[in-house]
Structure formats: C-alpha cells, structure tokens
## 1
Amino acid sequence: MDSGTLRIKMLGSFSLRWKDREILVSARSRKLYLLLAFLIENRADTVPYSALAELLWAGQSPGAASNALKALLHRARTMLDQLWTGAGRALIVSRDGGCQWSANILLVLDTEEFVRLCQARKKQQPASTLDALSLYQGDYLPALSDHPWVKPRSDEFRQLYLHTILTTLPRLNGLGWHQEAAKLTKTALTFEPDCEA
C-alpha cells in the first residue's frame, strides 16, 4: 500500500476517501455506520469488545451480541477493503480484548479541521474563515442524530458554525465583501432557518 492520507467526512454525510476511491457509508446499516464512526472518533483508545457490543446491542445477551459483533466487524472490514486491498484489517486493528482504529494510517477528519480552522479565525484572513465554514456541509453524522453519543457533538458543531458565521459577517461587510456575506447568509439559513444572520 502506498503512503497517503485517508480523508473522512462526517459533517452532512459519512464518507471515507483514499486517493481516488471513496466509500459513502450508508445509513441503511445503522449499526455499521455507528461502529465505524465510534471507532474513528475514539481512535486513540482500544475499545473493548464488550463496550462495542453494549453500544450496538444494549440489553441483549452477551453471547448473542458477541457473535453479532464479529459478523459486523467482518462486514466493516470487507467494506473498507474497497479503499485498497487489505484496508479493513489495516484500519480496524484487533488488540487486547478489543479493537482500535489504526494510528498507522494518516487521516484528516473534517470535524477536526473545521474546529481547528474556526478557532483560528481571529488570526486568519476572511477567505480562510470562509474555507473553514465551507467544511460544514450539514449536521454531524446525520443518520445518528438521535443517538445519545452523537447529539451533543452535533449540537457543538452547529453552534460553532453559527457563532463563526455571526462573527464573520460583520468583518466581510466591513471589507466590502457584500457578495460573500450574502452567500454565507443564504447558506446559513439553509442549515439553520431560524438563524438571524
């Protein structure tokens, strides 16, 4: 496998891109969607199989959940193999009674890039702030919007997006960037119709 960067998008949709190959994670398989998102977001830690089984099959018998988890991990790895041969095993690593998203593959996560750029906006030119705002393509992991693990994060990203817009619009208008300000206002109203931008 060539070295490269895995680009993961979680704002507005959920996809993984490696070079010219992209996988759109379908919301039709909610458990697969949740498993991948959870492993990616918690990639610094090995997640015990028991914790994954509880996350995905809360209340079911441990034996049934364990077998279902093995099958789901197999499906996830098979899907990831579309990125490159062996990607599934390279990205989801089994260790110490659990599994972990590999730290050996460089990745760029749109949520982390969005937060980083929004937080640095005071030092940036308005064009860079517009680039940051363009990363927000909709709610975080929209297929899991009702999940207790996802909802607070989704609300956090939405609030950061709105706050950044509200602090950026006066700067754009002050610089005479009226067309950009109007476009930004229109986009904000698409995501948040009640926003008074």
## 2
Amino acid sequence: MAYSSDLPAARGFIPPQSDEERRLMRRVEELCRVARERGIPRYMGFLSDREQDLAKAACHKADFAAIRFWGGYAGAERKVLCLEPPESWQEEPVAYLRMTAMGAGGDRLPGHRDYLGSILGLGLDRVCIGDLLADPEEPKVFYAVVLADKQEFIASELSSAGHCPVRVETCDQLPPHLEQGIERELKEATVSSLRADAVLAAMMHTSRTRAADYIAAGRVEINHLPLRAAHETVYARDIFTVRGVGRYQLAEIGGKSRKDRVFISFFQY
C-alpha cells in the first residue's frame, strides 16, 4: 500500500475528557511519587489503550521514566501499568487461567462476553481482568489474563459462563500458539475521504448513511471516546467500537488512487 505524506498519519494525544480520566491521571502521578520516594514498584490494574495513553502522559508529567506496560503476552490489548524504580525488585503482576466449557457444543459454547460477565459477576472490577482469549485449537477452551492476586479467587469461585458450566484451572503461562496474540485478517478498502462515516462504512461493509446513523445514535466510540460527528477526521491506529456490532482498527492509511480515493487497511477484533 502506497503511503502519501499529505495524509494524517496518527492521532495526537487527547487530554482527559472527564472527571474519571482526570482521577486516573492523578492516581498515576501519586503512584509515581510513591515509587520514586520509597524505591518500591507500584502497579495499576489492566488499562485500555486510551487509559494507557493517559497513564503515559501522567508519568511524563511526574517526570517518572521507569515504566512499562505488560498484559501477559506480546500482543495484549489491556495492560497493567508497572512503575519499577531502578534496582527495585520486580513482581509479576499478572497470572493466567484456563477455562473449559463442560457439556456444551456448537453455538451453545460461551464466548468472550459470557466469560467477562461471569467474572465481573463475582464482584470484581474491570481492572482486575486483562484479555480473554479463545483457543483456536480447542473450541471449548478460553484463557484469561488476570491480576496475580485475583487468580486463586477466580479459579475457586467461577463455575459457569453464560448458561454453561465451566472448569477453571490456574496455569503458569499461555500456550505457545497464543503467546503472540490472535492473528487477525488484515483487509483493504478505498474510501472517498477520511471522514469517520466513510471509513466506518467501509469497515462495516455498509452504506455511509447507515454508518452516520450509528454515529448519530451515540453507538460509536473512537479510542474509547464518543464519536460526536460523522464528519470528524480519523487517523491510523484509531480503534472504532460500535455498540452491539463489534470493534475495528484502522491499521494504516495509504496513498490515493487515480480516482482520488484513499487506500486504507483495517481489521476486526
């Protein structure tokens, strides 16, 4: 895919948009202060990509550089913020669970939403749970990356997902074929412009009118922030969440065709 330098490459940092996001940044700054003054590692639960951007900004503001994000495997989406001063001991903040559906088959097998809902139903916050991964080699098996101090609790308390009984086992790592994350099919399309409705329509294989209707109904987020207008410009690596439909990432923006249409590549989560 050809690249054109006159097209926007990536979205810049967006400051906190809500009291919740401002509280997150203040919390990160406080953890940075504690880690620096006491020389001990501090950890914050699993963060979305948007929350990771805010955490990076907070660490920069606090002038604290000894940070890393870790989600349990190389391709993780949700990651724990690790603040680890030089020469301090490092803890392993995440652990793994293997969840096997019992006595179910076909469409009755629990999916991502079932497992997530059941784990949250144990009284845990979303920050306690990282990625949930279906095993393509074993249809009845899902793996969960969770905070290390919640592993035993979930393993002992979780007995079903959706309407299906499940067996939960602790494990030391993900199987090798999941270590690099799920390989997603990269698709290509051309769009008339980088307006949100045009790009969303191409990714959803629908009309711009229908894509604009989703946006007007408040059903679309970009990078976990509400998309307020169909004409907004989108950027490479933007993540679209369409409530009730799915999630997509605009992976790359290419050059233009002879008919002045823009090449894009994208995938669906």
